Amino acid sequence: MTLRWTIFWKSCVPLRHHGIAVKLTGILGNQLISRSQNHRLQPYRKNHKMTVHLLKDEAVQKYIHRLRNEYKVVTGTLQNANLSDSDRRHCHQRRVELLPVVNAFTCTEDAAKDLQEVESFLQSTIADPTQDEQMVELLRKEQAELTRTLQDLNKELIQALVPLDEHDDSNVILEVASGRTTGGDICQQFTREIFDMYEGFASYKNWHFDVLNYAPADYGGLHHAAVKVSGEAVYRWLKFEGGTHRVQRIPEVGLSSRMQRIHTGTMMVIVLPQPNEVEIQIDPKDLRIDTFRSKGPGGQSVNTTDSAVRIVHLPTGTVSECQQSRSQIQNKDTAMRVLKARLYQSIMGKQTEQRDTARKQQVGTRAQAERIRSYNFSQDRVTDHRIGYMTRDIKEFMRGGEQLEELISALLEHSDLEALLELVESDRLPRRETDPGSAAEEGD
């Protein structure tokens, strides 16, 4: 737990023991100063201001207050020995749902009080001419630590208030496909680099990255690929990666490289949560299954048997194919998994469109045709257009490590803020008398 400097300084003998405290916090202070100078954290400061402003909003405060009151009422109700088993189960479940919000808000309140006390003591110390600069510097380091802690706690509070996406823990089918441009091969090369970036990100997150389909192009490029990514919270981390990615660069290889000018190309990323077998059923009569020989770069056949499989879902026209394995049975199984994921995404998209009629999230919809990000190699810059996030060192970003994680974290934070706004707005609507929240407010 963070040291409360107000109590600490009052309990210390003057000045001669200040050096001990400096030694205890010197390393931490240097780390904080180093982190604050990292230019990649700028979008987080922007998001932090939005988070603080939103949490101080009167409507949000009322919403949190109602949830805390409801928690008190539910906890008190559970003490009733005459409560029926069904009502007890309902109250217990609701208490479990509310507990993370109550704990997060309590921790946030405590941290805010600690910060306020340290800032007050810092101001009085600066105004006291008898105090030395070493004490002031130590208090400023403690202020920086508490500020960072409060930022993290605010994020946790937002996450506790916003319900989780039901698919956040799902594995995904991730597809990459090259776009079209006058340059020709720049899109295929960029598609391969994006594929490698997500493979690197999967390794960084300790996920499994299983290639289902891979159609290479000339000059080391890639036409299309599909992979299954499995692990912890895969869909939560990748759900906002779907969309059009744009590249601007002078090609190094291929026919486009002869012109020695900046070309613009695009590629598409599609992220599909992988459904369970019970979530979607397909009638075999609705399928047309074709077999053909696998093709390599340039269109030449790379297999002498008809092992590649294409499956068409006749009612919707959805197509899935696989030619990764030499086994027709394995390719058919893989193509069927991809087909189910695509059909499930289509169903989920229709439900989302019907549900989200009042507001679009600031990070954009999940429409895969939306241009979401630009990679400018000539200016060494990556820009996410949905939240105005920009980072440098594009080669490091394309490794799929910490920089990509920071960008996705900023997207998730923005999404949570927008989701909280929607919750607060819906909470303003009149509720029925049977709503547990109404009872909570009456019990305050």
TrEMBL record:
Belongs to the prokaryotic/mitochondrial release factor family. One of its GO terms (molecular function) is translation release factor activity. Residues 425-435 have a biased composition (Basic and acidic residues). One of its GO terms (cellular component) is mitochondrion. The keyword DNA repair does not apply. One of its GO terms (biological process) is mitochondrial translational termination. Residues 425-444 are annotated as: Disordered. Keywords: Protein biosynthesis. InterPro entries: PCRF, Pep_chain_release_fac_I, Pep_chain_release_fac_I_sf, Prokaryotic/Mito_RF. It comes from Alosa alosa (allis shad). Residues 293-309 form the Prokaryotic-type class I peptide chain release factors domain. This is Prokaryotic-type class I peptide chain release factors domain-containing protein.
